[in-house]
């Protein structure tokens, strides 16, 4: 069987923890979405032929209206949906003002500090809250890109 004929065995999602100073970007899922009314990091599925880090930046722009750059890989999470894997990147704000996508997927977008998270009245998706708190408290390990890898310019995080 040719490689392109193989059925997909796993769905790959990406998420971005986007920092601007001491605050992290959160988006609130719009009505009709699986996490409707909850805040989360920007996230979504990797499109066919798309690199995960590129997908994370695309989702950040689409869902939060912010341009960012990847600082490195935070980690990998087996997601609750069987056969779904999350790849999470740490990103830095480059430009833009947090803006939701008009209610298609998101209805709010904003940066929050640790103190502001404590005052947030809307629910935060539990895993995203755990992750954001770890990052804002500095209790994480970042795996930077390795630009000297043999597949350059394809990124490797080692």
How many angstroms separate the termini? 31 Å
Return the CATH architecture: Alpha-Beta Complex
The total beta strand count reads 7
CATH class term: Alpha Beta
CATH topology type: Nucleoside Triphosphate Pyrophosphohydrolase
Q: Note poorly predicted spans.
A: none
Shape: globular
Radius of gyration: 16 Å
Proportion of helical residues: 10-25%
Write the CATH homologous superfamily: Nucleoside Triphosphate Pyrophosphohydrolase
Helix-strand makeup class: alpha+beta
SSE order in H/E notation? EEEEHEEEHH
Detailed description of the structure:
This protein has one domain (19-137): Nucleoside Triphosphate Pyrophosphohydrolase (Alpha-Beta Complex), CATH 3.90.79. The chain has helices spanning 52-64, 114-119, 126-137, and strands at residues 11-20, 23-29, 39-40, 43-45, 67-78, 84-95, 106-112. β5 (67-78) and β6 form a beta hairpin. With 158 residues, the protein is an alpha+beta fold. The chain is globular. Strands 1, 2, 3, 4, 5, 6 and 7 form a 7-stranded mixed beta sheet that branches.
List the helices and strands and how they pair.
Blueprint: E1 11-20, E2 23-29, E3 39-40, E4 43-45, H1 52-64, E5 67-78, E6 84-95, E7 106-112, H2 114-119, H3 126-137
Parallel strand pairs: 1-6
Antiparallel strand pairs: 1-2, 1-4, 2-3, 2-7, 5-6
Quick synopsis:
The chain is an alpha+beta fold and 158 residues long.
